[in-house]
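Fold it.
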Amino acid sequence: MGLLDGTTNKDYYQGNNYGNYQFTSLADIINQFMVVYVGENKIIPKASKVDVAFHAQRALRELSFDTFKSVKSQQIDLPPTLVMPLPHDYVNYTKLSCVDSAGIKHPLYPTNSTSNPFQIMQENDGEYSFPEELELVVNGDFSAPTLAYQTLPPPWGRNAIPQINNYTTQYATVKVLSEVLTFRHRTRTSHGDTSGWGHAMSCWQLIDVSDQDYVDISATGSAVDMTNGPGVLRFGLSTNPGDSNTKNLNDQTYADSGTNHLPEIFDLTAPGGVGSYIEWRSSDGTNVSKELLKVDVKAYSQVYVLVVSYQEFSGLNGTFTITSTLDNVSVTNSYASTKLQPAVGNASESSTWNSYKANTPSENQDDYQDDTYWKMNGNRYGLDPQHAQTNGSFYIDPRLGRIHFSSNISGKTVILDYISDSLGTDAEMQVHKFAEDAMYKFINHAMLSGSSYGQPLVPRLTKEKFAAIRKAKLRLSNIKLEELTQILRGKSKQIKH
């Protein structure tokens, strides 16, 4: 019967599940509810486990918002873009802060004086534009500034670089050089495979085609021969990004290859049933422009612009060499658009926000260079406390799922404290034992409220639910008498004890 029977102190202290005894899994809550509350001569005569699981997840979500300690945090060094993506399990924020050199958090405040609206594309006369040949790719000429070799200009993504993170010595990689997408490869014979192998690298960008039936693709590319075989470059559209497994093996019986080198990853269709890609080989020459018209995308709202480069091989170790280059990547609508389009260059950031972030934030009134903190000759009347700081400000764009920061925070460490709903992963689906009873009361109330036979009990169960939630809040508040006493000792009134 003991919860720790079979678990030794050694198992606990040599493991990594510290402090987990204070929690009960959601699966245990559901199973125990089915045993105790459901059955003959019990408060719920009959119920399916699916129904109980649904209400248990609803209870966990609701209690996570204002009862459980469900606050998570993320820390980043704010890049020059002044943008932080919202976490994948984000529901709402509790606090945004920047951190000084001593590790102290300084609060940031939301700005009410600007926003990042959807900026509509217009003709010269002000009429809304519904253009044909509308460019869907962002930064298709790779002119946006890129950081170290580990990154591509956003919103481009790519495979993890195999082996050594060194652009001059590793086995394969992709980066932007002189505003051109550049791939480097070499072939290898190792790990017992004498027939040769290498890496098939890819990069991609997710684009919106919800208003399109057909699109045209084009690019300028080149591929060169190496000693051990030709380089192959492909560009097209796919329903998936590139394969994280970059291995391209000549001997398929030795180990599994990734799929990047397969034409089938470009799984849309063009006229004639051909694949949704164009290809360059050394026989094409250098910097050759190609296009493919009317790729069918009407069944999709989003597709990936996908670029793949790999090296064919003869089984010898080859020199690390530039094998493929690509530029002027373009995806345009084949026919005129039927929905409002963003202004060119302002798809993700409107001119309003660009103007705001280019200047000192208006919310931050002054600094502490002298004894006067206010521009009006020391007059403090009317000073808004949220503006009486120089920490900076932020704006959350729910449309794009990003947090924009003011320019004075660039390069600083930013911490986002946010709320989730505790349903993101199985490991998160845990209930603190202080709130276990509240979970049972919540599920019980929800089950009987939705039944025909349980209506007479609903008023009583409602009171029990709210009483259990209130008790859970008090327990989880974690107020300690000694800590409260210590705070009061700092006040003017002396406390005797």
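Confidence is low (pLDDT under 50) at residues 365-374.
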